[in-house]
Amino acid sequence: MCSCRPSGGGLVQTGGSLRPSCATSVSIISLNIMGWYRQTEGKQREFVARIISDGSINSADSVKGRVTISRDNAQNTMYLQLNSLKPEDTAVYFCYALKGVSTYWGKGTQVTVSS
Description:
Helix content: under 10%
Structural class: mainly beta
Strand content: over 45%
Number of helices: 0
Radius of gyration: 13 Å
Shape: globular
């Protein structure tokens, strides 16, 4: 069993930055994958970025070049550095963890970008 606890969302102006984080209840190195999705009202959840246990990273084309995903193994925490934010990045951001065949989701943290 694993729980994910996101934090670090907020309100910024266009061009600003935020750094949501996601703390896990288990050792982060025991997780196969950690990542982020985002969702706006009335739309499906959209993949943002993920980091795999070997350190490899994938990100969506919509955020490529503006997003950095990283993890702190000692703190069991994953970070999503969001730069050059746009109004279309406004969404609830959900972190998740894949451990074996089980996926664990955090509650979500709101990111709002004003124009």
